[in-house]
């Protein structure tokens, strides 16, 4: 039966998660980019949201959430949202509201990947990549986990997208960074830290709808998810700040913002399954582990994940998904993890992580091969030095007049 209160909360959550992409992620990434690339960086989030919004209503929702073909993918019975009517229920909310909510998840997942590719990927290649990746990576994995696919049948726990959103985006970011190669100026030079802080705040704010809305009801689980989300983000930001302070002598605002985003990503799969103590521990680890991945692993291996999509979202999604299998508390949402007498849940989480990593990595690599057949992946060296704002769009973010 459709309930007005639940419907109202999910409608608000639709707006909150949409805001995470536009303007939240766009502003966050834009502030981190070099001045000559900021408009292109923001534009990648913009065009992604537009493209995925179109693909979602044509066939994306149907592939994710209608039927089940061998546990791998949905069918085409709900193409153009066929049969999704105002009075068609999905739990206690109209199915059309559920479809709109899930659209915003699909959009931000694809947009997240762009942070690994900025300042060197052509806009045409990005659009073709986004179309193929949404179709052949996001849709199947969303079905596996949330649409009744084989991982759902195994009992995997992913409350709001540790696997579906953060792991997939992070692995795709890493693969693409390796395929594209390093930028000619492979350094992080945020041109506007004010935008980065504003973007962090918008993402944090929107994340309450991202995680809290994933309860799909206005209830105590939603409230728990919201509180866990805020706690993990704050603890991770503080942990990152302390570690950076101790190792470099200065606590940077960029580091604090990175820690907050890391905490948000890592708590996402666990938000509606763990208690506050679990969220606190997850927050501590989310502020420490990604920091050392960036400062040690990335430095040693030398890959150019421009805005640390893998290092924060990929690592956070993997870590959070595994820790959900440890800290899931049946008093919160029925599911029990290792510490609550169910060690098999940890095994399920590890299996889901492993399968997803392999699938995303292989298919993303194939997609890059296909894109290369139709268009150039990278802009020319001259265009890169000039900046993608000018070379790709004929515009500049800031007027000098």
Parts with pLDDT < 50 across at least 5 consecutive residues: none
The total strand number stands at 2
Based on secondary structure, the structural category is mainly alpha
Shape: globular
Mean pLDDT: 97
Rounded to an integer in angstroms, the radius of gyration calculated over CA atoms is 20 Å
Largest sheet features: 2 strands, antiparallel
Strand order of the largest sheet: 1-2
Q: Helix count, per DSSP?
A: 15
Proportion of strand residues: under 5%
CATH class: Mainly Alpha
What's the architecture, going by CATH?
Answer: Orthogonal Bundle
Oligomer: single chain
Count of the separate structural domains: 1
Q: Briefly note the CATH topology name.
A: Ammonium transporter fold
By CATH, the superfamily comes out as Ammonium transporter AmtB like domains
- The end-to-end span amounts to 59 Å
Structure description:
- The chain is mainly α.
- A hairpin with a 2-residue loop joins strand 1 and strand 2.
- The longest helix is centred in the last third of the chain and has 32 residues.
- The chain has one domain: Orthogonal Bundle (Ammonium transporter fold).
């Amino acid at each position: 039966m459709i309930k007005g209160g639940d419907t109202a909360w999910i409608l608000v959550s639709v707006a909150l998660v949409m805001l995470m992409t536009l303007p939240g992620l766009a502003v966050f990434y834009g502030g981190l980019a070099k001045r000559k690339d900021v408009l292109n960086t923001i534009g990648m989030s913009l065009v992604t949201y537009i493209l995925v919004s179109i693909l979602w209503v044509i066939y994306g929702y149907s592939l994710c959430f209608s039927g089940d073909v061998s546990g791998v993918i949905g069918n085409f019975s709900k193409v153009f949202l066929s049969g999704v009517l105002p009075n068609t229920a999905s739990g206690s909310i109209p199915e059309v509201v559920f479809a709109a909510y899930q659209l915003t998840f699909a959009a931000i997942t694809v947009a997240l990947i762009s942070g690994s590719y900025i300042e060197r990927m052509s806009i045409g290649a990005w659009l073709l990549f986004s179309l193929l990746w949404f179709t052949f990576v996001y849709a199947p994995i969303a079905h596996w986990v949330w649409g009744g696919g084989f991982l759902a049948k195994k009992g995997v726990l992913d409350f709001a997208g540790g696997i579906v959103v953060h792991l997939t985006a992070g692995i795709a970011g890493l693969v693409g960074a390796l395929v594209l190669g390093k930028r000619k100026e492979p350094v992080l030079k945020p041109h506007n830290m004010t935008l980065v802080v504003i973007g962090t705040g918008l993402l944090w704010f929107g994340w309450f709808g991202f995680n809290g809305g994933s309860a799909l009801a206005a209830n105590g689980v939603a409230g728990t998810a919201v509180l866990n989300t805020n706690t993990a983000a704050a603890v991770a930001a503080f942990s990152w700040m302390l570690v950076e302070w101790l190792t470099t002598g200065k606590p940077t605002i960029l580091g604090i913002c990175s820690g907050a985003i890391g905490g948000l990503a890592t708590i996402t799969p666990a938000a509606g399954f763990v208690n506050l103590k679990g969220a606190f521990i997850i927050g501590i680890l989310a502020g420490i582990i990604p920091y050392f991945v960036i400062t040690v692993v990335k430095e040693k291996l030398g890959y150019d994940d421009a805005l640390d999509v893998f290092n924060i979202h990929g690592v956070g999604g993997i870590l959070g998904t595994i820790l959900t299998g440890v800290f899931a508390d049946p008093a919160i949402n029925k599911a029990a993890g290792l510490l609550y007498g169910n060690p098999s849940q940890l095994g399920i989480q590890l299996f889901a992580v492993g399968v997803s990593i392999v699938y995303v990595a292989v298919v993303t690599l194939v997609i890059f091969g296909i894109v290369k057949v139709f268009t150039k992946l990278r802009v020319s060296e001259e265009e890169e030095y000039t900046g993608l704002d000018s070379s790709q769009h004929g515009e500049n973010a800031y007027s000098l007049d």
